[in-house]
Design goal:
It contains 10 helices and no strands. The chain is an all-alpha fold. The longest helix has 35 residues.
Length: 231
């Protein structure tokens, strides 16, 4: 499990770089989730988590000086924690996904704090680079740029690793202890999460276009199929 957590942290850090470098939409939760899930042998759970996250914070856009919660980092942690904890217990269930979502969602807020810190550090580096260029150091801009990229990558890798492993161990310990009534509550939460996400997406559909429609339809169909399975 430790080795898998390290691999996911390294991969998750690379995916998070897409938020600030290429911006090729790989860092969107609905793409990140299946990638992480595929690497752990459960792309379906990754797609479920990614679709949840795509809707949950879709109304938080990086406009002006506002730094939104890091939904990419949260998707990596939630997907990996749910799958790894499920593998240690035999299978990943809807109840476990719901519990993992509730336990690990603050990872996105920690990522937000980290992104704010990165931005402040980058502003300082920009001022230093300007002074160094004026002093005749022509390579200063390139050097400071590479430092910023390395800082961003290592920061995300460390945060994912620090959160993922303890969260997975905690889930593996506490989940089997829950009584049947609590499991039923978690199942209700699992079905309510897409309802909440669709409600948020309806307020932002004119901004984000077809993505919330796709995620909403996917989650609606998934809920219907799951309900048939439990009936």
């Amino acid at each position: 499990m430790v080795f898998k957590a390290i691999v996911i942290a390294v991969l998750g850090g690379l995916i998070c770089l897409d938020r600030i470098v290429l911006q090729g939409m790989v860092s969107r939760p609905v793409v990140t989730g299946p990638i992480i899930g595929f690497c752990l042998g459960d792309a379906y759970t990754g797609l479920i988590v990614g679709a949840f996250m795509e809707l949950f914070w879709i109304n938080r856009s990086p406009i002006g000086a506002y730094v939104p919660p890091n939904d990419t980092l949260a998707t990596v942690v939630i997907t990996a924690a749910a799958i790894l904890a499920g593998q240690s217990m035999g299978a990943t269930s809807p109840e476990l996904i719901a519990l993992t979502f509730l336990v690990c969602l603050p990872a996105g807020l920690l990522g937000q704090k980290l992104d704010v810190w990165k931005t402040a550090r980058n502003e300082r580096r920009a001022r230093l680079a300007l002074n160094e260029v004026q002093a005749g150091d022509a390579d200063a801009v390139s050097r400071r740029h590479h430092q910023s990229l390395l800082q961003a990558y290592l920061g995300d890798v460390v945060l994912i690793g620090v959160v993922l492993l303890p969260a997975t161990l905690f889930l593996g310990w506490i989940y089997p202890l829950f009584p049947l009534p609590f499991m039923k509550t978690l199942l209700v939460v699992y079905f309510l999460l897409p309802v909440l996400g669709v409600g948020i997406a309806l307020n932002t559909i004119h901004v984000r276009g077809v993505i919330p429609v796709f995620c909403g339809l996917f989650l609606t169909m998934n809920v219907v199929l799951e309900l048939f399975r439990f009936v």
